[in-house]
Design brief:
alpha+beta; 4 domains; elongated
Length: 521
């Protein structure tokens, strides 16, 4: 077989170029100690590295999310702990003030301290994080969670939205704690009321407090279905309770309605989940206790819904809502929306809409003012001033099932600022009010405690997932290394071999290229 000189040179040049490129690739591999520098080096391995790289980036993002969430939850927990400490002091004040030996001056001093505590708690509820976002507003991070109404109560302005971050494949965790969960859903233990129905003028001989809900399950299942109740005193030692239908339900009261006629006994009467404080106050000359106590009666009922109202800043007139009350319970229960807007179309005509009002909204009730009152959906609103076309008022009903702690502190301050010295009956009513407030403080503490527990559970979840992510990160790095990285000994041996082969090829080409027939003549 004969090979032309041109063929020989071409073949040798191609082989040398191929071997030279291999040597260069091996030299680059030896320099980086990476087997795959481009996709062409190993297409399958490069594809696997791409997927592993994406997973690594996600794991790094999860790590950042976990660290960020931990910091946020730590700030929230610290803030809630501070609120708990403040409420503990408020509870101590309530217990101390409930001592019958305290004077009006003492109680006013306690009220002043409670005012400072209320402002401290308000500031903590409206606390911000390092980025200037409100901690407890839900997704409305640029809105202060709580603001004060004109009547001194407080309204929650946030929402119930959880802000979630991914911390693992298919795993999210809430980074925030809403004020709705931490403060707004505090069970209100003071949602019943008593009203003396006989005698017409209170003689102070029988004091029956508004009561507190001691057993919520019994209250919900039994009390609300039979109210209003009539509590009648048959004697100084026996009372009778009848429900709204006139049925005798005294057997469900403590000791079947048997009470003590000892002066200032401050005894407890429990009935269908409600605990009421009772005092019998016999006066000098009351030689026949049964005769002077018999005939006293009270109506015991659920505290009726109240309403928080506010005029729109853009109202054409200066008219305001000065009062509101349920005037038709059936209409109110069936028609009144959870939040409403009262809109005037003239000085006397109005429409009531469910909030928020949109272009498609239809009124749920309409009417005309009578005697300065606007009645809509079973609620009568007293209007101060003359409304104008376009006036709007926002209305938020309160069923008293829950109560935020700011309102509880406000009620405590009002009770403490009420003069009591020399008035035994007023003191007894004050003690009942303070016990209700203390019950609500306990309820608020429980609600905040549940929020702290939730934060702790999420923190534990973050720690567990962080451990899992660290294991995945290590496994990812190991797998990438096994695919991408080279064995230093193997690559150096291969490089040496390739370099030696190049040198040998160069030498062989040089020798062979000198051969020819003329060299044999």
């Amino acid at each position: 077989m004969r090979i032309s000189t041109a063929q020989y040179y071409g073949t040798q040049a191609a082989d040398y170029q191929r071997n030279f490129n291999n040597a260069l690739a091996t030299a680059a591999e030896a320099s980086s100690l990476q087997r795959i520098n481009t996709a062409a080096d190993d297409p399958v391995g490069a594809g696997r590295l791409l997927r592993l790289g994406q997973q690594s980036a996600l794991l790094e993002q999860y790590k950042g999310n976990i660290n960020s969430t931990k910091n946020t939850l730590t700030v929230q927990e610290s803030t809630l702990d501070s609120i708990t400490d403040a409420l503990q002091r408020a509870k101590e004040i309530g217990l101390a003030a409930n001592n019958g030996n305290k004077t009006d001056a003492d109680r006013k001093a306690y009220a002043a301290e409670l005012s400072q505590i209320q402002q401290q708690v308000l500031g903590l509820m409206n606390a911000k994080d390092a980025d200037g976002n409100y901690l407890f507003s839900g997704s409305k991070t640029d809105t202060a969670p709580y603001s004060q109404n004109v009547d001194g109560t407080y309204t929650y302005n946030g929402d119930q939205t959880s802000i979630n971050l991914g911390i693992g494949d298919g795993l999210n965790v809430a980074t925030n704690t809403t004020g709705w969960d931490a403060f707004q859903q505090t069970i209100n233990t003071s949602r019943t009321q008593t009203q003396m129905t006989a005698p017409a003028v209170d003689d102070g001989r029988v004091v029956l407090t508004n009561g507190t809900v001691g057993t919520a399950a019994t209250y919900n299942s039994k009390f609300t279905g039979g109210e209003p109740y009539t509590v009648s005193f048959l004697s100084s030692t026996q009372l009778k309770i009848t429900d709204a239908l006139g049925n005798d339900v005294t057997s469900e009261a403590t000791q079947n309605g048997v009470v003590s006629n000892a002066n200032g006994a401050n005894q407890t009467v429990s009935f269908r989940g409600v605990d009421l404080k009772l005092n019998i106050n016999l006066k000098t000359g009351d030689t026949n206790p049964d005769a002077v106590i018999a005939g006293h009666s009270f109506q015991l009922s659920v505290t009726p819904d109240s309403f928080t109202t506010a005029r729109s800043p853009g109202n054409p007139s200066t008219a305001v809502i000065t009062g509101s009350s349920v005037s038709n319970q059936a209409a109110y229960t069936s028609t009144f929306p959870g939040g409403a807007v009262l809109k005037f179309t003239s000085a006397t005509d109005f429409d009531l809409y469910a909030a928020p009002v949109t272009a498609d909204s239809k009124p749920v009730s309409s009417g005309t003012m009578v005697g300065g009152n606007a009645t809509a959906a079973g609620v009568t609103f007293a209007i101060g001033g003359t409304p104008a076309n376009g006036d709007q008022f926002s209305i938020q009903p309160n069923d008293h099932q829950t109560q935020n702690v700011l309102d509880t502190l406000g009620q405590m301050m009002a009770a403490l600022n009420t003069p009591l010295d020399g008035d035994a009956v007023a003191k007894q009513k004050f003690q009942g009010a303070m016990e209700s407030a203390l019950g609500n403080l306990d309820s608020a503490g429980n609600q905040i405690g549940a929020a702290i527990t939730s934060i702790g559970a999420r923190g534990q979840s973050l720690d567990d997932q962080s451990t899992t992510n660290q294991s995945l990160t290590l496994a990812n790095a190991t797998t990438q290394g096994s695919i991408r990285d080279s064995d230093p000994a193997e690559v150096m041996t291969r490089l040496t071999l390739q370099q030696t082969m190049l040198q040998a090829a160069q030498l062989a080409f040089s020798k062979i290229s000198q051969l020819g027939l003329f060299n044999k003549i």
